[in-house]
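Sequence in, structure out. Go.
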Amino acid sequence: MYLRFLLLFFLIQHNCFAQSVQSTRFKLKYASILLELPKKWTSVQKLYGMPLMIIGAEDKGNKPVLSITSTNIKNMKSPKQITKQAREVYYSGRKSWLAKRKGDLIKFLAYEKEEIAPKVSSHSIGVVYDIGKRRVSERTYYVTCNKQLFHLKTISNFNRPKESLALKKLIKSFKCI
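Output:
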């Protein structure tokens, strides 16, 4: 009887997890990818010139967003790190963008390097800023998958850390096919 209960429990758990995310394939200009989309998240291709946008469920007017662009850069080896010069160019660009939109820079987010999966690595850098009445967390990722470079960007409400965690989990599901 106990064994039946355990089996039933694991089947229910597996079923609940299976319904909370869905493996979804996307065909981009230079590659196809697979992502585990959370329930109630949507995907839109070619919106505002972006090849692919993944949009989270709305919560009080906020929606976390992940944009993905495949590049035509192939046979790319993952660099050991983003150079200091590249980070300075990024910082300068974000400051300029904020100045034009009358936003306030709060802080730069630390550079991160991680292995997402075998043959999938990412380098990221980010910024937190106030624009209007919102505090925004934005992070840019350079992902190398099967020696091909992808550019990803996340935008979320800084005061809602669950959004950032959901975006990070989504990125960790990134697979090239």
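Check: The longest helix spans residues 2-20. The two ends are 43 Å apart (CA to CA).
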